[in-house]
Amino acid sequence: xxxxxxxxxxxxxxxxxxxxxxxxxxxxxxxxxxxxxxxxxxxxxxxxxxxxxxxxxxxxxxxxxxxxxxxxxxxxxxxxxxxxxxxxxxxxxxxxxxxxxxxxxxxxxxxxxxxxxxxxxxxxxxxxxxxxxxxxxxxxxxxxxxxxxxxxxxxxxxxxxxxxxxxxxxxxxxxxxxxxxxxxxxx
Length: 187
Fold this sequence. Notes:
Layout: E1 11-14, E2 17-27, E3 37-44, E4 50-56, E5 62-63, E6 67-76, E7 80-85, E8 91-95, E9 114-118, E10 121-126, E11 130-138, E12 151-156, E13 161-165, E14 173-177, E15 183-186
Antiparallel strand pairs: 1-2, 1-5, 2-3, 3-4, 6-7, 6-9, 7-8, 9-10, 11-12, 11-14, 12-13, 14-15
């Protein structure tokens, strides 16, 4: 695939390793005849290292031979997260360190989790863009402060702390964006 056609979330092969594209920056030259440069911020799925890739728009990147499978979280222990493929019931063991960014959004029964399978092994998880979580601790709003859009911290059931509007109360379910970690709406 051409570098100019690569989108965020695409899994490509770079230097023999599968990398998922996390961010794209386009540098358009001001001189005539100069090529547009595409700078990709990626994460190597095997070593978990960040990788910077710079290419011209007409350069080729190979798409990784990769499968995304719908999975369900079974349980976790202090070192691993265990998920099960919903189609063939195969279980995958993922080190907690490999899913550290996704962990604050995962609860039992969460729908829409997809495992990234490479060479018959799970190398990462993809979460839905929004998840519903319950507030476990939140300070009450101060009466009379509703004229401005002030926020307060709220601790969710997974331990994630997000900023929410002052009118939100403890025990409510919220929609949280898994890409940014921000409050979206009440559920």
